[in-house]
Amino acid sequence: MFKTLKRAVLLGGAAAGGAAVFYLTADTDTQMAIASATGPLLRMLDPELSHVIAIQATARGLMPRDPRPDPPSLATKVFGLSFPNPIGLAAGFDKNAEAVAGLMGLGFGFVEVGSITPRPQPGNPSPRVFRIPELKATINRYGFNNLGADAAQDHLAAFEKAAAADPSIKRGPLGVNLGKNKSSKDATQDYCIGLTRLGQHADYIVINVSSPNTPGLRALQGRKELEALVKQVKGTRDRMLWGPSGPPPLLIKVAPDLSEPDKRDIATVALGCGVDGLVVSNTTIQRPGEVAKYPAATEAGGLSGAPLFPMSTQVLSDLYRLTGGRLPIVGVGGVGSGEDAYKKIRAGASLVQLYTAFAYEGPALIPAIKRDLAACLARDGFKSVEEAVGADHPDIARPKGQAGGGRGAAGGRKSWWW
């Protein structure tokens, strides 16, 4: 029996070694497909555990790296920053900035980490993530669970050191998304602390006032509250010492659950206070369409994924109109294909982020979206992403150079790891 067991172990090791050699020597698309095919195994696990495993695998270099150049039509400049492509990873995936290098290597044009709070906090009790695979949707009530600003600062410093040694690691800009601690009585102070500790590591900063999972947070989207918050955070930023490139652009992330007066107030504050851009949108507390018939719909939390696309895109379009196309917008919510990304861009997005679709489809989705987006642009005669921004608003003349500006200047399938 011992000989039989030993032979089985040796054969298993040889098979694993052979599989590893095949993976490492395969072309990029094959590696992406293999990585994405791990979905059935991860689906056997709790959604949050799957998330943790995905982060750790990416942080340890176990995900494929896509070194191929992007189609020239996808290169764009926003906030004075150069993006190799407009497809980014939204905040919420890498909450602690642990896997930035691996995520950049997958081919994203930019990566946003967070939300990060000044102090560590565990978030809401588990279970707090629920799949609706039939609709490519999820509901989560994480509640800004993260290791805090000090840990994130250490991780970002380590990433910068690695990128300095190998410039190819940092493919595109890095955004840092800031939140407030649940127990904090002074939200403004929390955002200022986050900016002070992490701003030097960020190409842009996002003030997240739109998560539905922190009590009272969305109240900060009111005109009076938002204006006071933005003025103080922006003032803190402008008083800090920065390098030759200046301070990082400051963006506000808003919810999709906004009334018309809410949208007007946000547009007024953003323009009046010199915000550099908007991120539209976060998850929704609504349960639109077919979502309501699934058991997970009764769970509290924010809905993300395909069902969010119509709502978030409409809010994006409305805010583009209300700001007269004068502020770059990052479009988020339900993006799962190149056509989806293109619709966001035509509605007014200069950049596009995804999250839930990445969880369902895996790494192979990223090159597919980029290929399809390039095809959409060519199909409609656009030579670049910038030419297509706001194309659904022919009555709005975009100010020349809106996508540029100085850094910090005013202006149905099964899941992969969920």
UniProtKB/TrEMBL annotation:
Comp. bias (Gly residues): 402-411
Domain of life the protein comes from: Eukaryota
Keyword annotations from UniProtKB, A to Z: Flavoprotein, FMN, Membrane, Mitochondrion, Mitochondrion inner membrane, Oxidoreductase, Transit peptide, Transmembrane, Transmembrane helix
Details of cofactor binding: Binds 1 FMN per subunit.
Listed InterPro entries: Aldolase_TIM, DHO_dehydrogenase, Dihydroorotate_DH_2, Dihydroorotate_DH_cat, Dihydroorotate_DH_CS
Alphabetized PROSITE patterns for the sequence: DHODEHASE_1, DHODEHASE_2
The protein's enzyme class: oxidoreductase
Gene Ontology molecular functions: dihydroorotate dehydrogenase (quinone) activity
Catalytic activity: (S)-dihydroorotate + a quinone = orotate + a quinol
SUPFAM superfamilies according to UniProt: FMN-linked oxidoreductases
Cofactor(s) required for function per UniProt: FMN
Subcellular location(s) per record: Mitochondrion inner membrane
Its membrane topology: Single-pass membrane protein
A single BP term in Gene Ontology: 'de novo' UMP biosynthetic process
Region annotated Disordered, chain positions: 394-418
The protein's Enzyme Commission number: 1.3.5.2
Residue ranges annotated for the Dihydroorotate dehydrogenase catalytic domain, each copy included: 74-377
One GO location term (cellular component): mitochondrial inner membrane
Associated pathway: Pyrimidine metabolism; UMP biosynthesis via de novo pathway; orotate from (S)-dihydroorotate (quinone route): step 1/1
Similarity annotation: Belongs to the dihydroorotate dehydrogenase family. Type 2 subfamily.
PANTHER family per the UniProt record, alphabetical: DIHYDROOROTATE DEHYDROGENASE (QUINONE), MITOCHONDRIAL, DIHYDROOROTATE DEHYDROGENASE (QUINONE), MITOCHONDRIAL-RELATED
HAMAP family: DHO_dh_type2 (MF_00225)
Protein name as catalogued: Dihydroorotate dehydrogenase (quinone), mitochondrial
